[in-house]
Design a protein that fits this description.
single chain, 6 helices, 123 residues
Length: 123
Amino acid sequence: MGQTITEKIFSQHAGREVKAGEIVRVDIDMIIGNDITTPISIKAFEESGAETLARPDNFCIVMDHYIPAKDIASANQAKISREFAYKHKLLNSLFTISKFPMSNHHINTKVVLSFYNSLALSF
């Protein structure tokens, strides 16, 4: 049986054929965070003492669940993510925040695919 698209992507990054169920260490193309989970990750990042991201160009925060904010807590979640994106010059995140400021249409996957369209088409 042939490989799934996920197996093909991981195989290309690993430099060898990999199968579902394997644990592999590879460089990743993009990390995506959303407005719900990213503030939790930001807190852990800051508590770790880290000051810079290893690959900021490969990090994208997409505000798509609570934009516009449904309440004060949601607005604060968005603020934490936005401030982190500006502080670390996350260009992909700034693009999505400014281009889709009032989305609320769960666009995170679509936005990331638009950045990496040619990658998906090469398989």
